[in-house]
Amino acid sequence: MQTFSYSRLKLYETCPQRFFYKYVKGMQEEVTRPLALGKAVHKAIECLLNGFSVDESVANGIIDVNFHEEVSREDILYFLERTPFGNLRGETELHFRTPLFDYENSPEIQGFLDLWDRANNRITDFKTNYKPYHIEDNYQLALYAWAMKKVNNLEGDVKGSLLFLRQRGVSSTTFTEAKMNEAVTWARNLVNEIRFKLELLEFDSTKQNELFPYKPSIQCEHCPFAYKCFRDNPYPVKNTIIGEINYDENND
């Protein structure tokens, strides 16, 4: 595995086994309404910022999620009405890809910036979450800031903002060198751990559950692999939202 993203690393940190099912075994996850809605809204915002009409932007959002049955025109318009377009400028959906380490053939980190204001070294990310959070609660934008600074040979700090569209809320910060280095150290440590485990797995493929263990949490409620995960692990799980689950290999 050579290419990583923030979401891939965060999934591994949250539950190594779900990461294994999705990114190593290539098992597909259903496109849920929240995922489809977020993707459609991002596409519509991108189109509006690039001169498309509202109708064209909404249509492109719906097309981008393959006419997902749970995403409507009204859903997208709801978020567009809450987007502060007058304050937004820059390059939209900007893709980056850069080596994560300084050695030859280094693993790479990649991602997409919702909005990159090159003149002001500012990253803006749009969120359709129900629950807002502080921008420094995770490493997503700090890691993006490090990558953009590296790709563009920038000097100084990078600004970042999360726009929570449902609440019309904003969480902003300035990513200093120390904050960016903390984020990239987090990413490097996880990448090294994942790659080491994958090497071990090549020697003994029966160790997948030990190398990529499951982590029962509230996230299990929304995981498409939850049932398979608990069936594949020969230990009962206690004190979770699912309760105690006893493994029985003869029980279908």
Automatic annotation (TrEMBL):
Q: Which UniProt keywords apply?
A: ATP-binding, DNA damage, DNA repair, DNA-binding, Helicase, Hydrolase, Nucleotide-binding
Q: Where are the transmembrane segments?
A: none
Q: Would the keyword DNA-binding be found if you checked this record's keyword annotation?
A: yes
One Pfam family per UniProt: PDDEXK_1
GO MF terms here are: ATP binding; DNA binding; helicase activity; hydrolase activity
**Which stretches make up the PD-(D/E)XK endonuclease-like domain?**
3-229
Single Gene Ontology BP term? DNA repair
Q: What is this protein called?
A: PD-(D/E)XK nuclease family protein
Can you name the source organism?
Answer: Halobacillus locisalis
Recite the lineage of the species. Bacteria, Bacillati, Bacillota, Bacilli, Bacillales
